[in-house]
Every structure is written in structure tokens, then in C-alpha cells.
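Exercise 3.2. Students should predict the tertiary structure of the chain below and write it as C-alpha cells, then compare their answer with the key that follows.

Predict this chain's 3D structure.
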Amino acid sequence: MKNIKEIVKKAILRLCNNPKSICVALSGGADSVCLLHILNSLSDSLGFKLSAIHVNHNIRGDEAKRDADFCVELCKRLNVPLKVAAVSVLTEAEKGESIELAARRLRYKVFEEIDAQYIATAHNADDSLETFLINFCRGTGLKGLTGIPDIRGKFIRLLNECSKSDILNYIKNNNLEYVTDSTNLSNDYTRNKIRNNVIPLLKEISPELTNVSVRNLNLLKNDNDFLNEQANKLLKASFKEPNFLKIEPLVIAHSALTSRVLSSYVYEVTKRYPDNLHLNLMLDMLNKKSASVELFGGFYARIKKGYFCVHKDENINFTVETDVISKEKFTEECKINKLLLKNAIDYDKIVGELIIRTRNPEDRLSPVGRGLSKPLRKLQSEANINVNLRGKAPVAADNNGIVWSYMLGTDEKVKIDATTKKVLVFKVYKTRNGGQ
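Answer key:
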């Protein structure tokens, strides 16, 4: 049987530099009660001030009040200062955000405001195994397969090498009470499906699954740490002031390192990590498959003159004017301005109302003379149109779809031919940062 108290003590000495204060995230469940009890027994000898925080998510009604009351009574008995906070998950969840993720986000927002050097959460080895399986199914890569980190900023996980059974044995041996969250029994949440259905089946194959996972996750963490160290060296070798990356070192390096460099660099610029789709698009850029990639939040990745950079979209706006002229006048003007050929359509072939707008996801164009129809996004990419402009570039559409697009020209169905009598000409004006 593991000596959990000794494991927690060693974890504190390994992760924390002479901690002055530790606050336990106390739910009232077995894990957090175990952690609070152990830290309370260690606080004097290790010289830190112990406190606790309980968050009521306002999801479970009377049961949530029961949990809060339990935590208050427990901390009174242990003489541990406790703060009880409340959040409203059901009303504060963002659009498209699951209840599970909203609860975590709001809970950690409360934790961040706690005046303590460290916040100790009661994640254990079983939780890390569940996280591994969830991330494996999502395809997150090596970083997501290392389980829950022992330390992230001010958050420490002192029970990461202890199984749920280890914790329950400690609870039993110390005659501790705890509460059970009824939502843990529901399979409405992804983690619960893994915990209640998948892991029991895996344990039939490998009874020591949790202990085996601890060893495997530590090996994966070591590999990930090494790759990150090498990637940091590559980042330093590639970086050029003011905020560019030299492409040459990135191209010759292994993609495992290059992808980490790009991910770290994008985060430094945007404060958001790119997903696998954007990472692969940026790796393709380095292999000269494209010159620019649209990321997120108005940011774009570009390659220019041997350097890679990420920048915010410029303040570019378009104004489009139209003019209807005779076929004869159009022919004369084309002798002077050949660009008119790409910016003119047969007026009489317009079906219904003509509107000027930006692209929609379903837009397609059949460029004159090419004998094909492709998504507008793909045609813009093939034409190497600046990524900054693609989402703002004007298009014209009638009741049958796109008839003209900026820089791509006219659709086959409205092309000017021998039967044309009147021509509609598009005149495009581009303004940048308030100026022509």
C-alpha cells in the first residue's frame, strides 16, 4: 500500500520552492478531502499556510448546498480558513460551450483570484488516465497524451501518482467522511463515459492499469520535455527581430520540432495555440505549397523573402461602383485598359437582383475560359490572393449565384460575347487605415 502522505510531501518539495501558502480546491469529494487532510498534517513541518476554496456551480440545487455545508464544517474541524464562491454555469456558459467545460472555466477563474502562492487541485492518477484517453480520441498529439501536468503556473497536482483506490484507502484508514457528486454517475459527460464504461473494460485486460499508466505517462512527459527543449533551441536559432522566423532552420529540422516552434510562436503573437489544422497548413507553407494562411481572430501567417511571420489583419476596406455602358464603348475602353475584361459582365444575363457582398462558404465560381467550377475560397488560394483580403474581397451575385469576384473575374454564365448589348463594369476602390 502506498504511503500517500509521503508521496504528497515529496511532490511539494519537488514542485514548490519553500511554499508560503497553499490553497486546496475543495469539492468535498474523497480526493480533495484526502488532499486537505494530508496538507493540514504537513503545513507546520513544511512551513506553509493552508487554506481552502469551494466553488458552488449552481447546477445541482440542494445537493450543491449540501456539499458547501459539508466543506464549511470540515474546515471548521480542521481549523482551515475556507472561502465559498458561487458561479452560475447554466447562464454563464458561452455559445457552443459544454456544461463540463463551462464549469471548469468558471471554476478556474475563481481559483485565479485566490491570494495564495499555490492552488492545489486533487487530480489523481485515474484522472490523468482519463485525460489521456479523452485526448487520444481527440487527436491532440504528444502534449495531450502526457496526462494532467504536475504543475501549471500556480496550480499543483500533488496526488498525480496516487490512484483512486490509494485515496479511498487513506480515507478509510483515517475515518474521513466525504460527499459524492451525483453527476459523476451520469454518462452525459465525456469524462464520465470514459470513467464509467471504458476504464472498467481496460482494467479487465490490465488490472494494474492505473499504475501502468503512471509509468507510461511519465515516459511520455520525459519525451515531450526533451522535444520541447530542442524546439526552444530551434526557436532561438530561427528568431529574427522584430518578430520574424527564418525559414531555413525550420525547413531542415524535423517536423516534430518545427511544429512546436510554430505553435509557440503563434501563441506568443496571438495568445492562442493553433489547432492541428492550422499547424499543418503552416507546415505546408514552409514546403512552399502556399504563401499565406488565415488563422483565427483576424491573424494571418505569411512567408515573405525567406521569413515567416504572423500578424493581425490590416484595416482594409473596399468600395465598389458599377456602371452600365454599351458594348461599343466597352470595346473602345478595353483597348486602353485590359483589366476591364476581368471586371465586366453581360448586363442582360443578370438574373434577378444583383448584390455586392463578401464571400459565403458555399460560393463557387466558373472563371471564363477555364471550363470548371470551384469553391471561391480555393480559387482565391490558387490565385495567391493575399490572405488578408480574401474574407473582405467583394463579389457580385445574382439569383443564380456568383457572377463576378475581385481579382478572379467574371463567371462563365455572364461572360461578354457576340450577343452582348450592354455591359456592367465594376470599379473597385481599396482603402487602408482610413486612407485611399
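Discussion points: The radius of gyration is 30 Å. The chain has three domains: 4-205, 232-312, 316-432.
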